[in-house]
Design a protein that fits this description.
The chain has 124 residues and is an all-beta fold. The chain has no helices and eleven strands. It has strands spanning 2-10, 16-22, 24-27, 32-33, 37-43, 48-58, 63-74, 81-87, 91-92, 96-104, 107-118. It starts with a strand and ends in a 6-residue tail after the last strand.
C-alpha cells in the first residue's frame, strides 16, 4: 500500500490514523513547496533485514526530488511493516506526473503517481 496524505498519526498503541488522502497537488506558480504532507507505506511478505529506497521522481526528466533510504527488519513473513514519513520543504520544479517508487534490496516493490497541476487563475 502507498498513500499520499495530509497527515499520518501514530497512536500510543502503534495504530496509524491516515488523514486526508490525495493523488494531486495544484499551484498557480512553479517551482513550489507545498504545505507539509505525509507518506504511508505498508509492506508484507518480508522476513529479516532489508534495505529500502523510496524516491519521488519527475517522470519527464527522471529528476529525483525526494530520496529516502533506510533499513527494514521483519521478524516474520506474515508481519506487516508500516512506514510513515512527514514531508516538508520538497521543491516541485514544474507541473507534471511524479512517480513515487519503493525498492527493497534493489527490486521494485511498488509505485504510485502523484499529479502536480498548474492552477489556472481566472480574472475577476
Amino acid at each position: 500500500s502507498i498513500l499520499f496524505a495530509d497527515r499520518v498519526i501514530t497512536e500510543n498503541n502503534n495504530k496509524k490514523g491516515i488523514i486526508g488522502t490525495f493523488d494531486r497537488f495544484m499551484s498557480p506558480n512553479f517551482p513550489v513547496v507545498f504545505p507539509p504532507w505525509a507518506l504511508y507505506i505498508a509492506i508484507t511478505n518480508l522476513a529479516g533485514k532489508h534495505s529500502f529506497a523510496i524516491s519521488l521522481t519527475l517522470m519527464e526528466s527522471s529528476q529525483v526530488i525526494l530520496p529516502i533510504n533506510g533499513e527494514l527488519d521483519s521478524q516474520h513473513v506474515d508481519s506487516m511493516l508500516e512506514l510513515s514519513f512527514n514531508i516538508t520543504g520538497i521543491v516541485f520544479p514544474k507541473p507534471g506526473k511524479y512517480n513515487l517508487s519503493i525498492h527493497v534490496d534493489g527490486e521494485l516493490l511498488g509505485s504510485r503517481i502523484l499529479k502536480v497541476d498548474r492552477l489556472e487563475q481566472t480574472g475577476g
